[in-house]
Amino acid sequence: MLTIGTHTFTSRLLLGTGKFTDLQIQNQAVEASGTEVLTFAVRRLNLDQVNEPNFLEMLDLKKYKLLPNTAGAKTAEEAIRIARLAKASGLCDMIKVEVIGDDTLLLPDPLETVKACEVLLAEGFIVLPYISDDYMLAKRLQQLGVHAIMPGASPIGSGKGILNPSALQWIIDQATVPVIVDAGIRSPKDAAYAMELGADAVLLNSAVSGATNPVQMATAMKLGVEAGRLGREAGMIPVREYAVASSPAEGMITT
């Protein structure tokens, strides 16, 4: 089971809800993924526009836990304001803190992220910060009391997969809270690899919403996460420099 704060989940795949071509395909992909957690940008949700459709209208919200994020924020103050708006709207007590510091690579600003997390933790939020694959930053945020760490595999939407597995491994090895690999995932292979490294879950969006067949890709990602987790728990053989015979040498027939 995946436990984040006071919430427990069976699925280890978290799904973003942006960029789908239409709400029907989005709904079908959500169902196919088996996810229990849906994340979305508060700034892109028309909470006060009753005539504007949004993904909430298409889903049975009793089946999912919503994870609002602060996408669009460039400062701690903006992230805090967005988080408070989400909480006031009654969406959820969890918040993905996302403070982007660079418009080209869309990498998170570590200093502003820490500032935002400090305030939101003090206000009682369940806080999940999106960060780069920075080992020391992950440790500092855990010391603050965040409820999960969300390091990026590679830049958001890049599809480059896991660029630095060693950095992710270091973060995972010292983690005292769930590690959710977020951003840059392209294929089920990437999702499985993240889980093989020991991640507790994977969050993705573009890999599904941007696929030629989003519903089929959602199913593939679900299976990738499950396969990676099973492989990790099964205990994989060590990597060796040279070949090791798969058949025992003892008891062989000699001529």
From TrEMBL:
InterPro entries: Aldolase_TIM, Thiazole_synthase_ThiG, ThiG. Its main location: cytoplasm. The keyword Cytoplasm applies. Keywords: Cytoplasm, Schiff base, Thiamine biosynthesis, Transferase. It is found in: Cytoplasm. The active site is at 96 (schiff-base intermediate with dxp). Residues 4-248 form the Thiazole synthase ThiG domain. Homotetramer. Forms heterodimers with either ThiH or ThiS. Belongs to the ThiG family. This is Thiazole synthase. It comes from Paenibacillus nuruki.
